[in-house]
Amino acid sequence: MTENRGAISHYEAELAELRADPELAVEYLKAAMQSLDDPEDRAAALLALRTVAEAYGGLAYVAAEAGISREALYRALSPKGNPTLKTLLAVLKTVGLRLSVEPMSSAAA
Fold this sequence. Notes:
It comes from Amantichitinum ursilacus. Helix content is 56%, strand content 0%. By secondary structure, the chain is mostly helical. The longest helix is centred in the middle third of the chain and has 13 residues, at 43-55.
């Protein structure tokens, strides 16, 4: 078996890209947040926010800065998580983002 020296996982590459390009992180989260409209697919948005949190310091750092326990953050941003608005806002603020509202497109209405 050939050893891949210097190779990084897809996840690590994704984290590096999100960390290097804040606009990419915003678009990544925007796309994932659209899944919140579908009760069967809400996990995508939570996992995307978790990935961005990992990219911007890691879950332990984000939890400490957001004023919540690391365990609570792991639970809130798990596929079956159900974060409170307070938690969601604190995490977004910690990674330099904020919650925003925009009208639904006429096609989706």
